[in-house]
Amino acid sequence: MGETKQIRTSCRGCHGGCGVIAHVKEGRVTKVEGDSEAPIGRGTMCSKGLAVTQLAYHPDRILYPMEKTDSGWERISWDQALDTIADRFRGVVEEHGAESIVVGQGTGRDYESFLYRFANLLGTPNVLTAGHMCYVSRVGATLITCGNLPVSDFEGEPKCLVVWANNPLWANPDEYKGVDFWAAYQKGTRLIVIDPREGFLAKRAELWLQLRPGTDAALALGFLNVILEEGLYDEEFVERYVHGWEAFVDRVEEYPLGKVEEITWVDKGLIREAARVYATTKPACIQWGVPIEQTINCTDSNRLLTALMAITGNLDAPGGNVFFVPPPVRVVSEFGLHRDLPKEQRAKRLGGDQYKLASRVALVTPKAVWDAILTGEPYPVVAGLLCGTNPVVTRANAKEVHAALSKLEFLAVIDFFLTPTAELADIFLPAATWLEQDYVGDFWKRHGYVMARQKVVEIGECWQDHKIFQELGKRMGQEEHWWATLEDALNYMLEPSGMDFREFVRGGYLKSEMRYQKYEEKGFSTPTGKVELYSTLLEKWGYDPLPQYREIPESPVSRPDLAEQYPYILNAGLRTPVFFHSEHRMIPWLREIRPDPLVEIHPATAKRHGIEDGQWAYIESPRGRIKQRVKLNSGIDPRVVVAEHGWWYLEAEAPDHGWDVSNVNVLTDNDPAGYDPAMGSTNLRVLLCSISPCQNE
Hints:
Distance between the termini: 50 Å
CATH topology of the largest domain: Rossmann fold
Largest sheet: 7 strands, mixed
Oligomer: single chain
Strand content: 15-25%
Strand order of the largest sheet: 5-4-17-16-15-6-7
Structural class: alpha/beta
Number of helices: 27
Helix content: 25-40%
Number of strands: 27
Number of domains: 3
CATH architecture of the largest domain: 3-Layer(aba) Sandwich
């Protein structure tokens, strides 16, 4: 019997960072548990992290590079795989230019800086991320408003928590962990929940605001109207640190509570009460989520919530929404060599002229890429490298995504399994899980930490993403910009701290000392040095400099004609505690908890259509039809249908793996007419649908 070793590392099973102790016996991980000494997670782990051994040792996981041939997938060596990708990419660069290669990622796994370093040195401006409608859109909006991303300071003992379009206990989103939120809540904090669905937190909230899906910007304007009308704002802060106050007040006054009630379905008395509680209970913080970013109001919703934080004195104040001091490591933009992308190549970014805020944060909106592949305009995109992303399932208008990726002349995919997207590739590269990595975890986050992630096991021929980009970059002529070994690269990241990677691992993490109200010393990192409620940059770029509410492009209000055939609002993208977007559907423990995709409907709606609890039902939109299993929920409005996203079936026949059976993105639209004007955010969350029972299922 071999000895069991206990090795400290950090998780990246979802948004990541939680401290972990991995138990390793005879070169195999037998179990993982939370590390009580780690500052993130503090001994807790979610279901996804606990199930990592079933991911790492899954019988269908791909453990070696593969090439698609006429007879199917065949195993090849790493040298063959990387040489093939490099040869094909060089050919594209010579014939079309580097911009004809798209490099893409999904929700990050801490490889973003390596991916961007590779792409920028390659010379392609076309980096496809989830950021246009998830997190980076929030970063972009807050950068132009207050110069940084405000993060909830749970350890600062907030007296009021506003959970806006978020479920931190299930999502554990970037910068946050449910355990920290819960610890703050259990101290007796007042809780306001803003959600179309009555979930676990809404049932425990002092105030629950059940808004119409997609109307968050209007509700925020209603909050602001109350705060301005009743003089509940911090006059000194506004006078010293706010730009565009008078114009902003005029805009807010365009949204009296009667109008906001009509838009949002929330009683105006409840709006007034919630605004008063938030503005007068100090300190208070807003825990916000991506649903507000996946609509046409993405940028303005983020700016309005930032305005609420600022004018109530809760910006960079203890227990409010703060700017955490980063630890002493190199910043992502420096490591990613964003400034090394030639100006002439930056000018070729697809959609860059239209979506200037997206271009400012170095990403493209997906529709621009699909159009370039399918039409060749404004120039052809003919090759791609996708890492940790499954856009056939996770991006709007899945049928168009599938058609576009199928048309690429060459596609390489880095992943764990042959997903519906990976099945379209020519080369498959097997990625390492977080158990198989050395890295400076949470490198890009804004919560004040970096966490040591150390390799505890090696499985098959899998490489971590960082090594893949480094070795591929060398083959593309980028040798002078990469390091001899991955550890050398990590030492470079840590150089400002004065330690190397092995010293970092021994310490476990780095954290800087927190300082509040930093704006008193140097103002805000905006053109005016103030919180720009009137954005000088948006004005310069030709957008409305003041936030507003835009009606959702496919709603009963904007499309009453369509609502006759599709009478329900589909709130797509419901989170679950066991899956992460399109990941983990093949993990036995997790699939046992959630074997089927669920669509929630009100009992009255079910009765109207003769649908029973647990029955399969069709959900249909103008783009297509899928099926999910019904769960009755009296905590949603009878006019609303709530469906899960990310569903595909590894067990279904290849190469499709049932990507169009239950995938909610078969229903969603990616018409640019519904995009956020500055960011190009896809309207994923809100559309119109019908529902009907499946027969004999």
